[in-house]
Amino acid sequence: MLKTHSLIEPQDLSVEEIEELFTLADDIKNRPGLYINACEGKLMGTLFYEPSTRTRLSFASAMNRLGGRVVGFSDPGSSSVTKGETVADTARMLSAYADIIVMRHPYEGAPKVASLYSDIPVINAGDGGHNHPTQTLTDLYTMHTVFGRTSDLTVAICGDLKFGRTVHSLIQAMSRYENVRFILISPEELRVPRYLRQFMKDNKVDFTEVEKIEDAIADCDVLYMTRIQRERFSDESEYERLKDFYVLDGEKMKLARENMIVMHPLPRVKEISREVDYDPRARYFRQARYGMFIRMALILKLLEVGYQPKQTRLTPTKYHCKNPRCICNLENEPQQMMEIAPNEYRCLYCDYTVHIEE
Amino acid sequence: MLKTHSLIEPQDLSVEEIEELFTLADDIKNRPGLYINACEGKLMGTLFYEPSTRTRLSFASAMNRLGGRVVGFSDPGSSSVTKGETVADTARMLSAYADIIVMRHPYEGAPKVASLYSDIPVINAGDGGHNHPTQTLTDLYTMHTVFGRTSDLTVAICGDLKFGRTVHSLIQAMSRYENVRFILISPEELRVPRYLRQFMKDNKVDFTEVEKIEDAIADCDVLYMTRIQRERFSDESEYERLKDFYVLDGEKMKLARENMIVMHPLPRVKEISREVDYDPRARYFRQARYGMFIRMALILKLLEVGYQPKQTRLTPTKYHCKNPRCICNLENEPQQMMEIAPNEYRCLYCDYTVHIEE
Amino acid sequence: MLKTHSLIEPQDLSVEEIEELFTLADDIKNRPGLYINACEGKLMGTLFYEPSTRTRLSFASAMNRLGGRVVGFSDPGSSSVTKGETVADTARMLSAYADIIVMRHPYEGAPKVASLYSDIPVINAGDGGHNHPTQTLTDLYTMHTVFGRTSDLTVAICGDLKFGRTVHSLIQAMSRYENVRFILISPEELRVPRYLRQFMKDNKVDFTEVEKIEDAIADCDVLYMTRIQRERFSDESEYERLKDFYVLDGEKMKLARENMIVMHPLPRVKEISREVDYDPRARYFRQARYGMFIRMALILKLLEVGYQPKQTRLTPTKYHCKNPRCICNLENEPQQMMEIAPNEYRCLYCDYTVHIEE
């Protein structure tokens, strides 16, 4: 039985619990016929406050493959709930109908709010630039499936490492495993943020930072590709100079080990050329399939936890969250700035940290 | 077996039939496991010509919890049926695929038209400002569940009583029960319309009209809150003067009886302050859950009635409906102005009444 | 077992295979209870890149009536997959989740591309003005159901025969049967295109071209009505002169045989007046129901074929498709211009043919 009632951020699950999910996902993958009625009579509510077809289809497929049912909405335009109703109220309303909620929201912390008011489990399917824990589970489970382990791996990560939510979560999640080494491939101005570099140092995680795929590809077990958006470059000529460095093609693949794999959260745009699709080391489409299996395992485990009546009544804190993208500021939720170190306060909803001296 | 093939307006069901629905809904609520395959092989078509996430999710959840399936559309933007096809044709088309239709439409009378042409049962899920019978059933079923009765109750209703469809239906529906008393709370300019006041007098229903929640809250078994929209006030200063009178907060709740309940059709905006959510007398989120159960009962009962081939061919009447929001004028349905009193004619579709002297 | 893995164009199915589908559809129609769990555990992905409510509901109803499940999107607005991701990648992604894909796309050849990359069967639910093979199956199955045959029939087809995709497919499909005769009813400027006239001559199919319904209605077994759009006329006065010729009403029906039938792909606008609906020869609403049964048969047969790993890697051809509405030009798919006659090249994706002399 999981300790958490909801999955809001990757750290809600212990390493042992993730291992349990892997075991269950393996069984589902190997013996899918055993699970086609596992969620009979159960209902998932999918609240997508912004479109994310890929994630939504993955969850809906997972629930349907378990014999459960799905209701919900897929974009705010066709939804009246977004007009004037808070996430808290919508979560309570859906608690009346469904057995589990999957929520995507452009504001950071929105699924956290839902989990505070909902009597049924909530899964965060992406909240702005904040968290997307089932993507992280998908990534870990892909490595588990291919290598039989999530430790003792050299993982090269390529792209926009400054703003990439997926990348930050993956680094934090993998830092919990033994002997994981990162090679971080990015242009100077899109390197990982300082807090993450500090995090790796604090956790004694080995990492190097390089500028080109060629500097890393020969040494890694995993090459994790992500997109670099032109808009992220302050200098157009810098983008032009660098963009080809971040396109994985057949030439570069020649430098890679035979048993390495290429991963990508998808959708891929131009950062992986189509010829690579025919290389057996390309695993990004399989990765999507593994994502469905791990979501099936997660749904089953959270439904085991099930219904837990909530009477949350939070006392507002003295200090206020300064994040304009935080749900607490959008919807007037009680402020929850928790002191995490002297004069350092972190928002319970969005994890935004501020230094406050009186 | 219900006498009606479709539920278009609350009066389509007799008091006895509503009682039957309550009994079935109670059993579903108490023994949900018995019903998870009750609608196996059955298909609901949801035609939402305007978005109404809450109502749509309630129906879809109800059908899925019965083991049935749902197809449909949730807003006109993503639908091509609305382009040039009449409601009558769409209803006939969906009759070819589904076993029951749920329709929401901005034009009054549209579900009535669908029921005239569809071979399968039609449920009105809201037609403009006209009817929304399953909201009324939800309200009645909530009182039945809490008090064990829908008679012998003092019901205070607060908000925009002039334009509120929900309120009008509730008053009419409850007037059929013994010893029901209304306390109507609204500003002068948003009092119930004259026809409804006359209706209550004709039916010997006791009612009083007051201006503030404080004038009613101590005396009622049910406080039914609804929203007051700023736009409804002709005079901004009047709105400013009154708006706080129509906000239910912890202070006002102190005046209420211990065993009274607060209801609201949701979504709630500011008319109920969030502190009231923690008061055990607040039942508005539960009310949503009861709405799902009563809809489950209704679906089961209407599917019992099932398929009935239609060959409706209406002869147009001499007089025309004057309601610009009536579906008959939008889609050129045969006019059906029925004489209900000397020189008084009522439209079959939208119930709009006109006085015609030749 | 069908030879084809996907249904992209009507000719993908042999006459014998279509006959097999009819037999299965008949059984489904007669004994629906036998099939309510036939697709238990199977998942359909519906990718509608443009709205088509009628077709989508028909497929979703078919899959649900077989006990299968449906996930997908219904219009591009609420979908992020369309932003920058190719149809090829989306098809591969959905292959990871689902067991069968149904695709509607405004660009010609898009479902063909999907079928080249997807490991699971793909059904074309309409690609621009190109193909819509399940509409053709619906039309054939309707005749099979009513007459017990698709041969030995005189079929009058009325409307815009120049641009009507439905009409072109129907003519080509029926030309494969013995003793089928067409009466083509259209204004001069909207007659069937030259290639189709040539096709009928090559296949020794008897046809006549007339200008009015009255010129054909007394002689046909089937009157297949379609819409004529005002925009198709270059000359407004010509439209005004002709439009009533193409409206089927009770008067014209008096000229028709007793055992003929009226068909229409729906939605009908004004080309069939509502009084005809009550004529027992009107079969257009039934036709929609037959469409659901034939789709059920098709889904079952394609799922039998099932999963087939794809490693398609096409070598681009020298010449380029000139069709601006071809998916290959939109998404940079490898050009595939096949020589079908000396200096004649046809695009594999969209069937657009060009004459190239070097």
Characterization of the model:
The structure is a homotrimer of 358-residue chains. With 358 residues, chain A is of the alpha/beta class. The first copy, chain A, folds into 3 domains: 10-133 and 289-305, Aspartate/ornithine carbamoyltransferase (Rossmann fold); 154-284, Aspartate/ornithine carbamoyltransferase (Rossmann fold), CATH 3.40.50; 315-358, no CATH class. Helices cover 33% and strands 16% of the residues of chain A. Chain A has 11 helices and 12 strands. Chain A has helices spanning 15-30, 53-65, 87-95, 110-117, 133-147, 165-174, 194-202, 236-242, 250-253, 284-305, 327-331, and strands at 43-48, 69-73, 100-105, 122-127, 153-158, 180-185, 206-210, 222-225, 261-263, 337-341, 344-347, 353-355. Chain A has a 5-stranded parallel beta sheet, with helices on one face. A 4-stranded parallel beta sheet of chain A has the order 2-1-3-4, sandwiched between helices. In chain A, strand 10 and strand 11 form a beta hairpin. The longest helix of chain A is centred in the last third of the chain and has 22 residues, at 284-305. The radius of gyration of chain A is 21 Å and the shape is globular. Chain A starts with 14 loop residues before the first helix and ends with a strand. The mean pLDDT of chain A is 93. The A-B interface holds A 40-41, 43, 45, 69, 71-73, 77-81, 83-85, 89, 92-98, 311, 313 and B 32-33, 36, 51-54, 57-58, 60-61, 64-65, 67, 70, 74-75, 77-78, 266-269, 278, 285-286, 288-289, 291-292.
Q: Which structural class best describes the helix and strand composition of chain A?
A: alpha/beta
Q: What is the CATH architecture annotation of the largest domain in chain A?
A: 3-Layer(aba) Sandwich
The CATH class of the largest domain in chain A is: Alpha Beta
Q: How large, in whole angstroms, is the Cα Rg of chain A?
A: 21 Å
CATH topology of the largest domain in chain A: Rossmann fold
Coarse shape of chain A:
globular
CATH superfamily of the largest domain in chain A: Aspartate/ornithine carbamoyltransferase
Helix content of chain A: 25-40%
Q: Biggest interface between protein chains, with counts per chain?
A: A-B, 26 and 30 residues
**Sheet bearing the most strands of chain A, described?**
5 strands, parallel
Give the tally of β-strands of chain A.
Answer: 12
In spatial order, strands of the major sheet of chain A run: 7-6-5-8-9
Strand content of chain A: 15-25%
Q: Mean pLDDT of chain A, as a whole number?
A: 93
Alpha carbon gap, first and last residue of chain A: 44 Å
Helix and strand succession of chain A? HEHEHEHEHEHEHEEHHEHHEEE
Please give the domain count of chain A.
3
Oligomer: homotrimer
Number of helices of chain A: 11
The poorly predicted ranges of chain A are none
